[in-house]
Automatic annotation (TrEMBL):
Transmembrane segments: none annotated. Signal peptide: none annotated. GO terms for molecular function: DNA binding. This is Transcriptional regulator, HxlR family. Keywords: DNA-binding, Transcription, Transcription regulation. The keyword Zinc does not apply. PROSITE patterns: HTH_HXLR. Pfam families: HxlR.
Length: 125
């Protein structure tokens, strides 16, 4: 079984070790899932903007993220919502009023992103 001393160069030798790392429910699958959830040019900027404000309307997000198109903002917000990182709150008002906020799962992702930043700054390119 893999322990805390293993590195990225570790090659699992037994079937059990391979399953822990490479199996359908293994480490690789779970890390890949998280990377897929945040992959996209605007997903991280959206998430970090929502970390700063608890709830935001689409127009406010668009204003705070210069260069993002309405189409991309809508697409990324939908994907983040499907993945459970943000919640869409429809106030069922006319004119339409919708806000986005981080879900509990989205808030739990913040320490992971901070750790990634810390890793990057301590290992410059």
């Amino acid at each position: 079984m893999m322990d805390g001393t293993s590195t990225h160069l570790y090659v699992p030798t037994s079937q059990e070790e391979r399953e822990v790392c490479l199996g359908p429910d293994g480490s690789v699958a779970h890390v890949t899932r998280v990377i897929r959830m945040i992959h996209g040019r605007w997903k991280l900027p959206i998430l970090f903007r929502l970390y700063a404000d608890p709830s935001m309307r689409t127009l406010q997000l668009k204003r705070d993220l210069p260069g993002i198109s309405q189409k991309m903002l809508t697409q990324h917000l939908r994907e983040l919502a499907v993945d459970g990182l943000v919640e869409r709150i429809d106030f069922r008002e006319k004119p339409l009023r919708v806000e986005y906020q981080l879900s509990e799962m989205g808030r739990q992702l913040l320490p992971v992103l901070i750790a990634a930043r810390r890793f990057s700054t301590s290992h410059p390119a």
